[in-house]
Design brief:
Number of strands: 0
Strand content: under 5%
Radius of gyration: 18 Å
């Protein structure tokens, strides 16, 4: 039997991992559950991802890229010479879109990010996200302030997701503006 060409298979496997983690948590993730969810042979999951950690790295990296791209995109329209209120407002808006748009997706991405606490192999990927956002913010402020902004964004997002409270964009904007000085 000829081998079927399927260039989207790897992405389907990652998408299936997202759905499983979103539904069952990381504990529900296995090569078998991913293969069933992606409707691919079990061997395909192990061909593309030798371990579950490799699959989690790919999923976390994709989540990171999505958020970092949103931050870079929104900051592209702000004036780098006027960092204060414009940058704070745009960051607060992006966080609001992420937190209130598809909450299940935000919770899933946060779970993948926090998985680095127990899975050290994920820590460099979690650190990539921080660096990507710091790099994007560094056009508007110094690197130390950019890291403080990222820490504030992390904290606000975690509080909203973990306490089930509504996102307060005005509060986020004000706190981010205070960091920017």
């Amino acid at each position: 039997m000829a081998r079927r060409y399927d260039p989207e298979r790897r992405q389907r496997i990652i998408d299936a991992a997202f759905r499983i983690v979103g539904r069952d948590g990381i504990a529900g993730l296995s090569h078998r559950t991913v293969a069933a969810e992606a409707d691919v042979p079990l061997g395909s999951t192990t061909y593309h991802f030798a371990s579950l950690d490799e699959l989690l790295i790919a999923a976390l990296r994709q989540a990171n890229e999505n958020f970092a791209t949103a931050v870079r995109g929104t900051l592209a329209s702000t004036d780098p010479t006027a960092p204060g209120p414009g940058v704070a407002a745009e960051l607060a808006r992006v966080m609001g879109h992420w937190l209130t748009g598809e909450r299940a997706r935000a919770e899933l991405e946060c779970e993948l990010y926090l998985a680095a606490l127990r899975r050290p192999v994920l820590r460099p990927v979690a650190a990539e996200w921080t660096q990507w956002v710091v790099d994007a913010l560094s056009r508007h402020t110094d690197a130390v302030t950019a890291r403080a902004l990222v820490a504030m964004m992390d904290g606000i997002c975690l509080q909203v997701l973990l306490t089930d409270t509504a996102y307060d964009e005005e509060y986020a904007r004000e706190m981010l503006a205070r960091i920017l000085g």
